[in-house]
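Quick start: what a row looks like.
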Amino acid sequence: MGFKGSDLPPLVTDDPPRVLIAGAGLGGLFLGILLERAGIPYAIFERTAEIRPIGAIMCLSPNILPAFEQLGLYEELMSFSKEAIDSTFYTDKLKVVGKNGAITADVVGYERILFARPELYDMLSIQIPKEKIFMSKKILSFQQNHEGVMLRFSDNTTIHGDILVGADGAHSAVRQQLYKTLEKQGLLPKADTKEMSRGYISLVGTTDALDPVKYPSVLKEDCDINYIIGDKKSPYTWCTFTVPGNKICWNVIIQLGIAEIADDQFRSSDWIPQQNQGMMDSIRHFKIPSGTLGDLFDVTPIERVSKVYFEDMLFETWHHGRTILIGDAAHKLLPSTGAGAVNAMQDAVILANCLYDIYPTSYENIKVALNDYKEERFVAVKDQYPQSYISAKIMYGHTLSERILRRVILNWLPESMKRKQLQKDTAYRPQANFLPLAPKRGTLDVIPQRPSMRAQREEEEAKRKVTAAVI
């Protein structure tokens, strides 16, 4: 691959572009898997010595599952997942507020699935050859020009490539340096200088294997999903989800600005197990259908508990020169619909398609490819922000208007309207256009896949050669 101390690449080459990926999260790993299949050289650099994924629930929708099927990973994904058929909403006294059902798989082809996040990370990371992923490689700076891009790491090493992908999360170091440079040049939109908004914080964890006698819901084939909403004086919502292995993922969400306790938690900077334990002790009496949150806390190792912010921001600038942003580095959605991870992996699919079409590898062709990626993805992501806000209000909202909205949506909104919205939401499901497409599932008409320009050129060239041979 020539990633070790290589000279800068020539201005134009017939070789595929060399891609440097900053961040070994889900988006970076998924992109690496796609580039591996596309025959595009790449390397992944992670600033930490080890990734510790949040040990909580994660959701994937039909919008990304066909890409997993393409890659031959769908069956393994399903082995540690449960289907999300419906969910029940309760008051803090466990009185049912309403239920929310999912659109059936015979229409959309796939069910939404839920699982513990570390399971997915383990599955994806094992797909990356060991020699292509580098841990403890913190990027200090990068430089780019018409000849290439160079990364400089904290261990005083450097590396050259053709394209830099910032897949390093909501507080992306790649984005921060790129924006700093653009701001100095007067090229950064004012909107991209704002802070991300924070509406919620969350404590999440996954239990050890539970006794099915005490927790019979863990034996259900589909995921048992419960949302419990605190009373009018409380900023808390707490949720439980069953996952394979007789485990329960739990999530406690605090809405900021509702009560003093929420703002105290927001101001706390001690993101350590002891501080998390203190918060857990204060809410262990909260009721759940199988007992109390404390029952689950007692069978959850404290190192498997994390506190996270629910932030949201849609940045306008996703690329400049040879640098491109994907996932949370480009757009942070509220994690109310599972859209964050899904969009990061959709980004990876579309970016891989655009990189595959680069030929020959030149600065101009790279800029065209990165712009094509942004043009296709920006509109698709932007359309999801209103839906993520509404979903967050339904799931976690505590204001009077949010409580009214929740009851209306769960109990009085016609099923036909829910079905129409769900069909609209699941119609966009991009796949790698350089691989055989996954077989069509369900009756829903999905948005057509954009064909690969390179594949079309190669097919036309092959036909010309056959014709010439016949003549």
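That is the whole record. The chain is about 35% helix and 25% strand. The first strand starts at residue 12 and ends at 13.
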